[in-house]
Every structure is written in C-alpha cells, then in structure tokens.
Amino acid sequence: MDRIGAQRALSYGLTPIFCSMLVLGLTEFAWTPNLYLALCGISLGFIGAAGGAIWPERYGVRHIGAIRSVAQASMVFSTALSPILVGVLLDVGVATTGIGVLFAVLVLVSAVLAQMAVAPKQGG
C-alpha cells in the first residue's frame, strides 16, 4: 500500500473480481463456484486494505469519521440493491451469462475510473 498507493491498489484489487465475474458468466463447470469465490476473496482482501487507506490518503483525517460513514452507507445500500437488480434482470429474460458479463464490464469500468480519479484539492 505504501509503495503503490491506495488508489492504484484499489483499482488493481478489482482485477480478480473482474475475472470472477467472467468465470461466473462464461463457465458451467463443477469448479466454477469455487474459482468464483476464491477470486472474490482475493479481491476483497485487496479492497479491504485499500479501502481503509484511501480515505485518509485522499481527504486527510480531519473528517474521516463522516467520510467513512458515507462510504459504509453507500456500501450497505448497494449490497441491498444488487439482489433486486439481479432479480429484475432474470425476470426480463437476461441469461446468467449476460449478467456475469455485464457485471464484469461494470467492474472493469469501475477499475478504470478508480485509476483515473483525480485527487481532491487539499486545503481549507
């Protein structure tokens, strides 16, 4: 984290979950769930470490409590929304292959945006 920075670690940490979505969407082997979960676990390890470091790195520590609370609330909201989104996609006839690839694309876009994000101006 100290060497490459939290922002780069966060975007690199999305690579395994991108691969896991492709595995989930494009394979139907007996080992698919195992590989999917292993890749998700690797990604969550990266994101956990980078997520704790990115807020003070980008915004400082003055309002770290408020920043973390908004980040946690956003995470809880998105976690609650995702089963509804998947259910709607399945109800309208999108195949699980399409859902896996769609989510892989969304993760890829997120990784690119995380890599390109400009640091906010410090000062006050």
Structure description:
This is Major Facilitator Superfamily protein. InterPro entries: MFS_trans_sf. The chain crosses the membrane at residues 12-30, 36-55, 67-90, 96-118. Keywords: Membrane, Transmembrane, Transmembrane helix. The chain has helices at 6-26, 32-59, 64-91, 96-116. It has one domain (6-115). It is globular. With 124 residues, the chain is mainly alpha-helical. The chain is 79% helix and 0% strand. The relative contact order is 0.17. The protein has 4 helices and no strands.
Name some characteristics of this structure.
124 residues; 4 helices
Describe this structure in a few short sentences.
With 124 residues, the chain is mainly α. Helices cover 79% and strands 0% of the residues.
Count of individual helical segments: 4
Question: Roughly how many Å apart are the termini?
Answer: 27 Å
Assembly state (oligomeric): single chain
Q: What string, H for helix and E for strand, traces the elements in order?
A: HHHH
Overall geometry comes to: globular
Keywords: Membrane, Transmembrane, Transmembrane helix
InterPro entries: MFS_trans_sf
Protein name: Major Facilitator Superfamily protein
Transmembrane segments: 12-30, 36-55, 67-90, 96-118
